Amino acid sequence: MLTVQTRHAIHQDHAKTMATDDLRKHFLAEDMFRAGEINLIYTHYDRFVLGGAVPAGGSLVLDHVAETRTATFLERREMGIVNIGGAGQVSTGSDSWTMERGDVLYLGQGTGPVTFSGEGRFYLTSAPAHHRYPNKLIKITDAAKVELGAAETSNKRVINQFIHPQVMESCQLVLGYTQLLEGSVWNTMPAHVHDRRMEAYLYWDMDDESRVMHFMGEPQETRHLVVANEQAAISPSWSIHSGAGIGGYTFIWAMAGDNVDYTDMDFVQPNELR
Description:
By secondary structure, the chain is mostly beta strands. It has two domains: 2-9 and 31-138, Sandwich (Jelly Rolls); 142-272, Jelly Rolls. Helices cover 4% and strands 46% of the residues. It has helices spanning 12-15, 20-27, and strands spanning 2-7, 28-29, 37-43, 49-54, 59-62, 77-83, 88-92, 95-99, 104-107, 114-118, 122-128, 136-138, 144-148, 157-163, 174-180, 186-187, 191-193, 197-204, 212-218, 221-227, 231-235, 242-245, 250-257, 266-268. The strands form five sheets. A seven-stranded mixed beta sheet has the order 1-3-4-11-6-9-12, with no helix packed on it. It has a seven-stranded antiparallel beta sheet with strand order 2-21-18-23-15-14-13. The chain has a four-stranded antiparallel beta sheet with strand order 5-10-7-8, with no helix packed on it. Strand 3 and strand 4 (49-54) form a beta hairpin. The longest helix has 8 residues, at 20-27. The radius of gyration is 18 Å and the shape is globular.
């Protein structure tokens, strides 16, 4: 079963007028991981798509998606897949990969139909592509790692870069995940924006009762979302994206836009936030 939601782009002036329910309707991705289903959210932010595929021991095929008006979903797109569940398999034509929890798979433009099977919970991200790069399975041991923050500021964390120029080539999709170390709660602080790219955060590896306070909005006009496990915040280019969690968590960040320069950020210091 395949379902697709469409999220239209929201201007920052419009976002300032939104109450909690409207903010969640437009910027929070919920209920993407349902057993036996593929659920996608097609956004008008750089035509970025995010979603989940949960074969639940069976198999699911991602092929034609009406919203793209192409013969197959990946005809003019690339995709990054993260397995946030048990062991599972992803296959495309004659190629097949076994993905353990935390593995990342890149699929290039024109790959064709994609089959998901096994016990995996597959987080899907996709952006338009202009060139085909090779499909590649990336283990955590292959990721580029950056350690940032400090225990004193409660933001000590490890950034694992998977679909990233230091690891492999892609058209415009950049993806990795950040793990907060014990005792730290803040991610992406100091906050930043990047007018050249959108971004999405999927929060996972959380207890059921845990929550993340995800901060969004313009730096001088901030808003927030209360986010649970396996929910994602969609961040327009004008919005900050930062958060603090109750209990441990990891978040998967994925970006699409004008460049693949991870360091292309316009930082906002805490004393500048409002």
